DNA sequence: TCATTGATTTCA
DNA sequence: GAAATCAATGAT
């Protein structure tokens, strides 16, 4: 797993492929409390704590976009964990997802909220995240990455939002994770 | 509870 | 080709 050896007293470090390659049901709640860092064209780096996520897991999960097979839009979800899956919905909003798991096992964690901007459409608008972020590699990109600050998050789980079309048993899976402390 | 808004998917 | 659908938000 990840080496705990640290240089100096700064505990913040960028998450590596070892983290993202794990199952989405581990990664999605583990992202809570971590820091989403986005670099603006101006060079300014914006950092926000992740407060809410949802898990989308594999071709059998009918709420997961990849359940309909590999398409131009879902291709990135079939890669190994650590890539960014961004898509446009309702004619207005970009959704930010983190690809997880091994190659050819399509999984992703939707970032539904960050501190100060609750809501998946609101956070992408606030951070100016759009389709140009599709396929960015969180382990090497110089404009988007996630940092671990060593914070041990507490959270609750609920049903996922906006996926009633998926039917049973997927609609009732407790795969939404909300930070509580 | 409804308008917004356009890419993606589904049905023909 | 056309029609329906949609990981949402904000105003009414």
What this model shows, in words?
- The protein is mainly beta.
- The chain has a single domain, classed as Methylpurine-DNA glycosylase (MPG) (3-methyladenine DNA Glycosylase, Chain A), CATH 3.10.300.
- Helix content is about 10%, strand content about 30%.
- It has three helices and ten strands.
- Strands 1, 2, 3, 4, 5, 6, 7, 8, 9 and 10 form a ten-stranded antiparallel beta sheet that branches.
- A hairpin with a 3-residue loop joins strand 4 and strand 5.
- The two termini are about 25 Å apart.
- Secondary structure tally, helices: 3
CATH class: Alpha Beta
Total E-strand runs: 10
Query: How much of the sequence is in beta strands?
Result: 25-35%
The amount of helix comes to 10-25%
The CATH architecture designation is Roll
* Element string (H = helix, E = strand): EHHEEEEEEHEEE
CATH topology: 3-methyladenine DNA Glycosylase, Chain A
Q: How would you sum up the global shape?
A: globular
End-to-end separation: 26 Å
Stretches with pLDDT under 50, minimum 5 residues: 2-8
- How many separate structural domains? 1
What's the pLDDT, averaged over the residues? 94
Overall radius of gyration: 15 Å
Largest sheet data = 10 strands, antiparallel
Structural classification: mainly beta
Quick one: CATH superfamily? Answer: Methylpurine-DNA glycosylase (MPG)
Short description:
The protein is mainly β. The protein has one domain: 3-methyladenine DNA Glycosylase, Chain A. It contains three helices and ten strands.
